[in-house]
Write a structure and sequence with these properties.
190 residues; 4% strand; 2 domains
């Protein structure tokens, strides 16, 4: 979702986000002049929901929520109210195919991690034979760098997908930049 992004140590909210009912409710509920509470809630939404958030490595939503609350300095007792729950559901409904696939991949990696942690290579079955094959365990471990590289590539794809159409660095694209070089070459040939 391009309505929220992390930029310069702040979560930036695009003006059009405030035209969407769930986000507008949060904004309007904060009657203060500086809108700090609304801004904090939007930061929570970004860090908790957005696939680009650094907190997405926490697959378990409860753990992620606690980490985000702590990171933002929220009270430990704070819980999302009905408006925040609606905003969370709405925010999550905007996930692209890449974001959904990345989330599923992260969940799969989490399951493999849990399984590997539970393997006891000294355990034996009822016949005294090893319950787990060290060879299978090592084969799985050898796949870890490959899986990590695939996750990194998926994260990069998602980041690129969200930046599509934006110029790199501090340069802003002009209206006809995409074909300017081809036009210049054509004019030079005449």
């Amino acid at each position: 979702m391009k309505l929220f992004k992390y930029e310069g140590y702040d979560v930036v909210v695009a003006p059009e986000a405030l035209t969407l009912k769930p986000f507008k409710k949060i904004w309007d509920k904060d009657k203060s002049k500086d809108k700090i509470k609304a801004t904090d809630n939007f930061a929570f939404l970004y860090f908790f929901c957005d696939p680009r958030s650094d907190y997405q490595y926490l697959i378990d939503e409860e753990s992620r929520m606690e980490a985000v609350k702590e990171g933002l300095g929220f009270d430990k007792k704070w819980e999302p109210d009905e408006d925040m729950k609606a905003a969370i559901a709405f925010y999550n409904s905007f996930d692209s195919s890449s974001a959904i696939l990345l989330r599923v991949a992260r969940e799969g990696v989490e399951k493999v991690q849990k399984a590997l942690r539970q393997i006891d290579l000294t355990a034996t079955d009822d016949k005294g034979k090893p319950a787990f094959s060290p060879k299978d365990y090592l084969t799985t471990l050898k796949m870890v760098p490959e899986v990590a590289a695939m996750i990194q590539e998926a994260e990069k794809t998602l980041k690129d997908e969200n930046e599509y159409g934006e110029a790199r660095g501090a340069i802003e694209k002009a209206m006809f930049d995409d074909g300017l070089d081809e036009v210049a070459d054509w004019l030079d040939s005449k």
